[in-house]
Amino acid sequence: MISNQIEQIISRNTLLWLLITNVAIISPLYDKLTLWTGGICAICFIWRIGIYFGRVSKPPRYLVTLLAVSAAGTLALVTSSIGALSALVNLLILGYALKYIECTNRRDVRAIVLVGYFLIALTFIYNQSIWNTIHLLVICGINTCVLVSLYQEKVTLKSTYKLAFTMVAQSLPLALVLFLVLPRLPPLWLVPDMKSAVTGLSDTLNFGDIGRLSRSDKLAFRATFDEDVPTNAELYWRALILDTYDGSTWDRNQIIKDIEKNAFVMQPDRGNPVGKTINYTVIAEPTHQNWLYGLDQAFSQTDDIYNLPDYRIYSLRAVDQKVQYRVKSAPNQAMDKSLHPRIKEINLSLPDDSNPKAKLFAQDMREKYPSPVDRLSAFMRYFRDNPFYYTLEPPRVGPQQIDDFLFTNKAGYCAHYASSLVFIARASGIPARMVTGYQGGEYNPKAGYVSVYQYMAHAWVEVWLKGQGWIRLDPTGMIAPERVNEGFDAIFEGEESYLRDSIFSGLQLKQFPLLNELRLTLSSIDYYWSVWVLGFDNDKQEQVLQDLIGKVDSSKLIALMLVSLSLVGIAISYSVGLFHFPSRQEPINRLYVRILNALAKKGIHKPQGIGPNDFVEQVYKLAPDLAPDFERFTQNYIALKYQNLPSTAAQKCWHVYRKQASKLRTAIFRLRSVDSDKSNT
Questions:
Q1: Residues 612 and 667 in one domain
Q2: Residue 25: helix, strand or coil by DSSP?
Q3: Entry pTM
Q4: Which of 60, 59, 79, 61 is closest to 71 using CA atoms?
């Protein structure tokens, strides 16, 4: 009966920690909440504050049920638009919030804490950076504070979070052992959330698409080169080839799409790289797409990352989490010296009723420059010699986009220039196609890698010339050469739309040397985390285990796991005091023993087997003048030794205890020796 009553009691400390934990756990997932879910969470939190201050009572059962049913029904209706994973996250958060509002006993608190740990793990699906990991460890500690306060009601807030974070720290060695030893199995709970919005390249291109990316500081990928890092002008990261134009949008033709779908069984026979090669490793951020990034003429060196006939690389699985792969590029190798008639036809086709002025201009240039090479040079000079300028906020164009840009507005960014060059090249009889990807990169000297951000997205042109194959042309370099040679920042750092969506980005600190150094250092830490932790795959695990135990087999692996877990268990047990034995050198005992030794020198001996209070009575008989001070000293000794005092009270008691010991030593020194026979009696 008494235990049931205790189970119903929730201290105010626990209620306060529940309020803090609720905000801490739900806030990292705020951008995943539907409007309805967010509203219910807010209602539950405000209601719980009212309960804490005694303004309202627990909501009636029917109201909680009504909220739960309506929320679940709303989620069922919007699942198709937000994605299955987001729907599941919202459902779990709703359960967490509704259980939180009706919490009345300790069992409810334990359930809330367990669901809280699961929500923390779900947060890690969306962001695995080291900074988010540290953030989630802090939230784990806050969630653990609820459990600590549940079973230690009289402790202060400071001692609660100190114990909770100690427990979290003690769990880290165990997590490390499991991370190193357990097989790397694909997570069954990871559901690709294709409905979530991810900033990045699209598989189609309109005039305004890449300009929008200039507002974002999101990381696209990092690359580490085995040897010298190429210059900024050499860093053209190919991702997509767009060769079909309908008058407004560039897209891939069906042949390319079919090849991508069957990349596993249709591996091209491209031979070995020819000429100079560049070897590097790429760590790509999640995009929920399949294409990956490589410099000109890329050859994948990683299993499950495939080569395409157009010298791009491709993943059969959508990139739903960070992926690391090796690439060898041969920038001087020719691409497709012979062109299939069907591919040539596709790369010459244009809509019949599209941009008549541009077509007429191209025909005039063809008559004036019969040689394709001369004609392309003339096109590039046209961009250089006329008053074109590069801007992220160009004027609007009408239905005849190319005509408006070439002959009226003459203002735009890479997509405008590349689209126009492909169009007039085709109209003049030269096969041409659009390539999208990224250009340039920020070199981090602290860790030796290149970071490529979304605002570095770029579009350029590849034209096919007989005997040479596909060659790259970038008309942007004719209007804004610093964009290509020095990077995006060199030309747009002062423009209003540059990083408009990232006003608090660390990239805004580049103009402050000390802060920029700090930014690069933090970025380096995150890079090493990505390489050694997120990139810890089966191959790396096997290599580490081989270094530890030699040839890996099941018996050695089991033995290693048992030994590691045992050592961690022993260390944790020792740290929590399971193997702790009383020591005479402890401060509390040490002072008490010193006083006993001082009394013994005066003939007052503490017999074996009697407690501290019984010895006080003996001191009263043998040294009445000393006894009151010794009694107070003994009571403080008992309080410090055997009572679970709050930290503040314990500190005060210890301070008094030390003063009493000093006073007693002086008094005992002045005490006359007692007859040993009296002491023994």
A1: yes
A2: helix
A3: 0.71
A4: 79
